[in-house]
Structures are given as C-alpha cells and as structure tokens.
Amino acid sequence: MNLLSHFACARHLTPLEQAGSALGDLLPLYRRRVRPLPLVWHWARVARADSPEGRIASGVRFHLHVDSRFHRDALFLNGSAAIQSALREASAAPGLKRFFPAHVLTELFLDHLLILDDPELPDAFYALFAGELPDVLADFAAAHPEADRTEFATFLERFMADRFLDGYRDVEGILWRMQRMLGRFGQRQLDRAEESAVLGAFDLLAARTQPQLLQFVAAMRHAEWGRAEAGPAPLAETATRA
C-alpha cells in the first residue's frame, strides 16, 4: 500500500515505467489473484522491451526490486516492530493478527512522511494517470486470465477519482484507512487504546525515520535492477497455481 513511496523511488524513470511501478500495488488491490509478476513474464515473451508494454513491465520489475530491498531494510523492520510492540502492549484482545496492521501502518506512515517532505507528491502521482495512460494500463493488465479489461479500467478510474492517497496527509487519515482494511481482511478493528498506542509509536518513529526514508529513496533512484527471471509457465497456468 505504500504507493507514494514506490512513486518517489521511481521518479527518475519514464512515465510508463513509473506507472508500471504503481501497478505492483494497484493490481492486487483490484483483485488479489492478479499478481504482477506473471504479467511481467508474459509481456517479456510477446513484446519488445521498448514497447509500451515492455516499459510498463520494466516498471513492475523496479517495483519488485524496491520491495525486496525495502522489506529487508531497517527502515521497515524497525518501524513495523515498534508498531507491533505498541499494539501488543495496548491490548491483548483476540481477533487481530498484529503483524498485519504493523506491516501496513508502517508503509502508510512512510507515505505520510514523504508528503510532509513534499506536499505536492500526491498531485504528481495522480497527474501521471491522466490522458491515455489508463487505457494502456488496462490493456497491459487484461493479459492476465484473472483480470477483465473493463473492470480494471473502472477500478483504476474510481481509485484515481477517490484521491485515496490524500488521506495519508495526517495520521488520523492513516488510522481510518487501516480500520477499513482490517474489516476487509476479516480482522477486528483497533480499539481506542490501540489507536492511541499507534499514534505514540508514530511520534517516536518520526524524527529518526524521515531522514532514513529520504536516504532509501535516493538510493533506489540510483539502483540497478535486472530482468525478472522469465519462467516457462504461461499466464493461464500461473493463475491456476496462485
């Protein structure tokens, strides 16, 4: 869900690659079984690297590269550990797998810190998806057997019109979005003590996390990433395995 962090890391890429980087999160949000890597494998076989589909696939690969680095970095590990600990100390009530909100809240909080550093970042993200680009992305996604072109185009239109990421501008907006997600994943919502504990963890994390985050983003903009290894399985077979 850290769409703005991925966007910040990808600002040096072409617009199609930036959009591909966003697809790494947008595709599973549209439908959980529509994973991005099988689409990379597919378009690597049937499209030129300098085609629109090839550029988008390159952006998806960059997203996966950033994720692999991010989820092993102290920036994520320390933040999620602090939030998970705060949740455990606040309440022992059942019905909540605390590693899940800790993971998501860490990512949303980092997007919040990026907005504090650059308040225009959400506007730049949404501007990327103007014009004909959504149609190109819908064509790209439609190659997946679990995706429907019209449905994905409608999802993308609604997501952009909703300006969901504007809610990351304040920590209360982050908590509200987390509560909505918990219900969708069959978990109970955070109680008031847990919400207060999360806000306290945010306060403790902010000062040391923001410079680490900006350093990570700068490092990713200078990173090299290779092609994802293209497996022999076609999309239909990959979807069956998912």
Describe, in plain words, how this protein is organized in 3D.
The protein is mainly alpha-helical and 242 residues long. The protein has one domain. Helices cover 71% and strands 0% of the residues. The chain has helices at residues 3-9, 15-30, 36-46, 52-70, 74-90, 99-117, 121-128, 133-141, 149-162, 171-184, 192-221, 235-241. The two termini are 20 Å apart. Mean pLDDT is 91; it is low at 227-233 and 237-242.
Estimate the strand proportion: under 5%
Percent of residues in helices comes to: over 70%
> What is the chain-wise order of helices and strands?
HHHHHHHHHHHH
Backbone CA Rg: 18 Å
Distance between the termini: 20 Å
Q: What's the rounded overall pLDDT mean? A: 91
- Tell me the number of helical segments per DSSP (H or I, 4 or more residues long): 12
Uncertain segments are 227-233, 237-242
Major sheet size, sense and barrel closure: none
Computed structural class: mainly alpha
Shape: globular
The tally of structural domains comes to 1
Count of β-strands: 0
